[in-house]
DNA sequence: ATGGCTTACCAAGTAAGA
């Protein structure tokens, strides 16, 4: 039923992504999410610890393999928790050898799936150079996605893209029009990813819903003044298999939450 | 249009997040 021999259908997969805003502060939220949803792959962003500081044991106890990519200083950080075997293909986005920021992790799973976890620069800090870094990072991501699609790999990108793709993807007035999350150059680069042939999974299944994945700390959540900045992008063959996709707000309702909520999808 | 939160730095006040 679930994989196996020649001609067998590929197994059903659940993929998810969660910006945790410190995995050491949010380990219990992640554990409850894993227990409830049992994703096959969960990409984390803003883990904010070195790899050796990652609280791997409590996830391994739930049957997950853990691979963390961190950096000194308590910034950034990405990781993968996987219930299926995987091999790490990349621990950084190619194209800028001096880039020491822990923002990308790519794996190949047992079933031949290529999946990349993304923590795209915010672009509002660091002045002009901070914004230029965001644009360069997106150009590098476009180059990488093009190469993966040219190779006809079943390919998925999941993570915090720090982009509201359209005006439908943020509450009215939630951001000033000059913000780096809604800038025309940033949105153009996000569209360039889609034009390569990637599908925005959440919008594919919920084209007109008011869906957010981030709400500022404070009254923003109860007022539903949010942003849709966490995304799952699927190559054409994976998009054909897309059977469900959503935002899980349960971890955002729990005490001491991350400011983001997880996004997930199911592939038949 | 921001920091009114939150976090990591590490012990007081920054910097970053979005």
Automatic annotation (TrEMBL):
- Cofactor comment in the record? Probably binds two magnesium or manganese ions per subunit.
**Record flagged with keyword rRNA-binding:** no
Question: What are its GO biological-process terms?
Answer: DNA repair
Instruction: Report the domain of life of the source organism.
Output: Bacteria
Q: Locate the residues binding Mg(2+).
A: 19, 46, 160, 162, 259-260
**Co-factor(s):** Mg(2+); Mn(2+)
**PANTHER family per the record?**
EXODEOXYRIBONUCLEASE III
Quote the protein name from its UniProt record.
Answer: Exodeoxyribonuclease III
The UniProt site entry described as Interaction with DNA substrate is assigned to 260
The record's similarity note reads: Belongs to the DNA repair enzymes AP/ExoA family.
Q: Which organism is it from?
A: Caldovatus sediminis
**Entry's Gene Ontology molecular function annotations:** DNA binding; double-stranded DNA 3'-5' DNA exonuclease activity; endonuclease activity; metal ion binding
Q: Where is the active site?
A: 119, 160, 260
Return the annotated site residues (Transition state stabilizer). Answer: 162
Q: Which residues form the Endonuclease/exonuclease/phosphatase domain?
A: 16-260
Answer yes or no on keyword Metal-binding.
yes
């Amino acid at each position: 039923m679930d994989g196996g021999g020649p001609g067998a259908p590929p197994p059903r997969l659940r993929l998810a992504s969660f910006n945790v805003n410190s995995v050491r502060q949010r380990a219990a939220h992640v554990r409850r999410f894993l227990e409830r949803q049992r994703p096959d792959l969960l990409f984390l962003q803003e883990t904010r610890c070195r790899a050796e500081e990652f609280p791997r044991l409590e996830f391994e106890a739930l049957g997950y393999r853990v691979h963390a990519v961190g950096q000194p200083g308590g910034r950034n950080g990405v990781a993968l928790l996987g219930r299926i075997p995987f091999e790490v293909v990349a621990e950084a986005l190619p194209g800028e050898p001096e880039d020491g920021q822990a923002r990308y992790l790519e794996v190949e799973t047992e079933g031949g799936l290529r999946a990349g976890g993304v923590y795209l620069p915010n672009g509002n800090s660091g002045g002009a150079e901070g914004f230029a870094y965001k644009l360069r990072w997106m150009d590098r991501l476009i180059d990488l996605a093009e190469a993966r699609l040219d190779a006809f790999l079943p390919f998925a990108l999941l993570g915090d893209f720090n982009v509201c793709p359209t005006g439908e993807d943020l509450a009215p007035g939630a951001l000033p029009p000059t913000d780096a999350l809604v800038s025309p150059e940033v949105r153009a680069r996000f569209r360039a990813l889609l034009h390569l042939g990637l599908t925005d999974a959440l919008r594919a299944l919920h084209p007109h819903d008011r869906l957010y994945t981030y709400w500022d700390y404070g009254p923003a959540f109860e007022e539903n003044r949010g942003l849709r900045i966490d995304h799952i992008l699927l190559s054409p063959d994976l998009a054909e298999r897309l059977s469900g996709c959503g935002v899980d707000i349960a971890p955002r309702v729990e005490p001491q939450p991350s400011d983001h909520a997880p996004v997930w999808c199911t592939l038949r």
